[in-house]
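Shipment paperwork, digital attachment
Item: protein structure file
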Amino acid sequence: MRIGLTPFNSSLIGYVEATRSDPAIKNRLCPPNRQPNTPADWIRGTLIAWQADALWARERDIAQWMDAARTNISRGLREQLSHPDLAANLARYRAGLEPAIANLRRLREEGRAQT
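Attachment content:
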């Protein structure tokens, strides 16, 4: 799901397994994302991770779990949203996210065209 974060991935998979019964929902929330070996793998993996993050944010219980999970590198961010520096940096991140995703998709397609 997230590249290079095996403990987090394992923890979240365990949570989803414990709280969901439908295999299709489990698979949607826990997309496979193999570790990268090439630059193209990083593009693919980043896209999968960002898409998964968006899914998790829309699931209230998962978002709450992530806020408390020790294995989540962004744990506790919601508690700090009133901090001006964090708010400004998150706004900058959000503003750049869609253009970044579009650029990664473009790079992925260019890579496919070259092979």
